[in-house]
Amino acid sequence: MTATANLAEEILDLKRDRRAIILAHHYQEAEIQELADFVGDSLELARKAKEAEGDVIAFCGVWFMAETAKMLNPSRVVIVPDQAASCSLVEGCPPEPVREYRRRNPDHVIVSYINTSIEVKAESDILCTSRNAVKVVNSIPADRTVLFLPDRNLGNYVQKETGRENLKIWQGSCIVHNTFPLRRLLEAKALYPEAVVVAHPECPIDVLRHSDFIGSTSAIIDYCAAHPTGDYIVMTESGVQFSLERVAPAARFHYVANENCNCSECPFMRLNTLEKLRNSLRTLEPRVELPADLMSRALVPLERMLAVN
Ligand code: 13P
Ligand code: SF4
User: Fold this and answer.
1) Which alpha helices (H) appear in 176-288, and where do they start and end?
2) Is 115 near ligand 1, meaning CB less than 6 Å away?
3) Is the pTM of this model over 0.90?
4) Long-range contacts made by residues 249-253, C-beta under 8 angstroms, separation at least 24?
């Protein structure tokens, strides 16, 4: 038996003993996705976490997503294979300037992308994910000024889709999607002129302008499943390949790389490995622990978002 197969067997045994469910984001390594009970985008994972039974949620994704799982199902033990699995959007939006904005603009509506810390969520009026951001902003009365944070590309996309002028946008970005260069996309389009371009809304606006379909990770997968042939140029994290090959085995997928690392992988998501997952199921660490008062404040905008859906 190979080392990977041994590890996988150990994980499945521990999962049964711990009464655990494994939730994985689409950006995880294929071998983690293979073992997961459910693979999804950030909104789907939040919904799954809310209804998860058993004692433990092993969350294979990034820390803010695991915090969301804990908020929605606080009696479960929530573990993440690597505690350092953060997100550049979370790091680029510390809570203090958001509190200051709130103090100065008490009448503005703060819409926070789910890619924020629990402290920022607690300062927010409503949350959104890439899947429902347009719907969430459209649910806010047109005469209210909105601060959308922290992703400027998603914010610009939402502004364009909603036509809303009273929308202020925080200037954060994703270190993966924001570095997909238009130049490389145009080169790929020249190579595959018939290809359909599918893009995550965290990509820069010039990349989105040249895209045929824009959507969350799972929305991209669903779109390709509905049109399962031909060439696609994929403007998102390459972990989606696992699901894309499953839903559209006859299609050909081409990835446009980030110029800094020549890959399209999120360095935070990829910190999680099978070995670390096995260790965290053994020790039930690193574990998400959240102060009760912070959790109850952050839960209000989270539940508001789920109600919009
Ligand atoms: P999704 O909402 O599509 O899962 O996106 C989360 C994310 O972090 C994208 O980089
Ligand atoms: Fe954050 Fe970007 Fe990684 Fe998504 S891909 S978790 S937005 S750094």
Assistant:
1) 182-191, 205-209, 217-226, 241-247, 274-283
2) yes
3) yes
4) 251/224, 253/224
- Output the ligand 2 site: residues, CB below 6 A: 62, 87-89, 115, 174-177, 202, 237, 266, 268-269
Tell me the CA–centroid distance for residue 178 and ligand 2, in Å.
10
Ligand 1: which atom is nearest the Cα of residue 26? 4
Give the atom of ligand 2 at the shortest distance from the alpha carbon of 87.
1
- 49: tokens are 């976490």
Separation of CA 266 and ligand 2 centre (Å): 6
Domains of the chain plus CATH, in order, are 3-84+269-290 (3.40.50.10800), 89-173 (3.40.50.10800), 177-255 (3.40.50.10800)
Among candidate residues 33, 28, 39, 31, the one with its CA nearest the CA of residue 3: 31
Residue 213 in tokens: 């379909």
Q: How far, in Å, CA of 234 to CA of 259, rounded?
A: 15
Using CA positions, which residue lies closest to atom 6 of ligand 2? 87
Asked if 176 contacts 263 with a C-beta cutoff of 8 angstroms, the reply is: no
Q: pLDDT per residue over 98-116, tens digit each?
A: 999 999 999 999 999 999 9
The length of the chain, given as a count of residues: 309
Our CA dihedral for 98, 101, 107, 109, rounded to 10 degrees, sits at: -40
Which residue among 23, 25, 203, 258 is best mutated to probe the pocket of ligand 1, counting the most ligand atoms within 8 A of its Cβ? Answer: 25
- Site of tokens 């994290």: 237
pLDDT, tens only, 43-82: 999 999 999 999 999 999 999 999 999 999 999 999 999 9
Determine the Cα–Cα distance for residues 177 and 228; give it in Å rounded to an integer: 24
* Rounded distance from Cα 115 to ligand 1 centre (Å): 8
